[in-house]
Design a protein that fits this description.
The chain is an alpha+beta fold. It has one domain (7-78). It has helices at 7-19, 48-59, and strands spanning 24-29, 36-41, 66-68, 75-78.
Length: 79
């Protein structure tokens, strides 16, 4: 079964990024569910490895994590 980040989780992760003053937002990729998500830069650049760590810390409680499709990428696969 595919691991999917639903709309509520995306909303909560975006709130978390906003609270930390990070100018990025997370978006689902595809129509049915978010087996892939994408980070979009909304302002000043930030270390992507820190972004991955923040998202994975949140998803840990749901037995999920994200990994970039290639090093440094903003397109992330949910695993």
């Amino acid at each position: 079964m595919a691991k999917i980040v639903d709309v509520n989780k995306i909303f909560e992760i975006n709130q978390l990024l906003k609270e930390k003053g990070i100018a990025y937002s997370l978006h689902s990729v595809g129509a049915c569910g978010a087996e892939f998500v994408e980070l979009k830069q909304d302002g000043e650049a930030h270390d992507v490895n820190e972004l991955y760590a923040i998202i994975n810390a949140y998803l840990k409680d749901y037995f999920m994590q994200v990994e970039p499709v290639k090093p440094g990428a903003l397109l992330l696969k949910v695993v």
